[in-house]
Amino acid sequence: MATWLERYRKGQHEQVWNEMMAAGERIRNEPLFSDALAVARETMRRARDNVEVLRARLERIGYRFAFPAEAVRPPRPDVHRCIEELERRVGPMPLALRAWYEIVGSVNFIGYHPQWAEYSYTDPMVVDPIDMALEEYSIWREACREFGREAMGPYHAPLAPDYYHKTDIASAPHRSVVVYRIILPNPAADAPVRDEPHHTTFVDYLRTCFRWGGFPGFEYTDERPADLAHLVKGLKAI
Question: What's the rounded Cα separation, in Å, for the pair 26 and 10?
């Protein structure tokens, strides 16, 4: 029988991820774990290629990143130590998020294009680095000490500001409000992204971002810029 990784590489992307999700916590047991982690890493290698292509294409069409140095940032050298530290504190993270942190790093496409002024909320792709997750944990832990764990609820790993604040802070310092997030611990292959408009999982959120050239907000507009077809051409399926 073919492995998940073999089937994924043959194009069964969504089917493989659906099966991995259906395994639930059993995904942490061998032989499922090694196969699933290999799929997660292959997925994120493709995602990394896509965000690099999108950054280059956006620059060529005149898109102005609000934070150019953060547009695509590779993982920090000690990312595996950071992953271990976060999991030691809050418990396991989904394999998809772990693979993103260790292979892609972070993405921040907040910015503007002079000819896109009519499009108010493009919801540019943002996935914060693991640094933000560790910082948020420290804030959450202190709040738990002050107000109690029950009052604070579970820990949320931050991913990005919501679509409104991405637009609102495009010319101001980032990190104003974080809304898109994943609740940890979660030992599954993937996890829901809370408060993201599509109400979907992290991998599906990435698929949606790539489907719309890094700007999933275009899904909700009647007209889209002509640049969109160029942005999405040839991106790798994940």
Answer: 24
Strand segments (E) across 63-169: 64-65, 72-73, 106-108, 111-112, 126-127, 155-160
25 exposure class (CB count in 10 Å sphere: 0-12, 13-18, 19+): exposed
Phi-psi region of 180 (alpha: psi -120 to 50; beta: other; left: phi over 0): beta
**Which residue in the block uniquely carries the two structure tokens 């991405």?**
166
**Contact criterion met (CB below 8 Å) for 191 and 97:** yes
Contact criterion met (CB below 8 Å) for 106 and 128: yes
Query: How many angstroms separate the most distant Cα atoms in the chain?
Result: 53
For residues 218 and 213, give the distance between their C-alpha atoms in angstroms, rounded to a whole number.
9
Q: Token pair of 176, please?
A: 């104003």
Spatial distance between the Cα atoms of 178 and 229, rounded to a whole number of angstroms:
30
Q: Which amino acid is it at 7? A: R
pTM: 0.91
Could you tell me which of 188, 175, 182 has the C-alpha nearest to residue 135? 175
Kindly report, residue by residue over 74-130, the tens digit of the pLDDT: 999 999 999 999 999 999 999 999 999 999 999 999 998 988 866 667 889 999 999
Query: Looking at this protein, which amino acid is placed at residue 211?
Result: R
pLDDT for 65-81, tens place per residue?
999 999 999 999 999 99
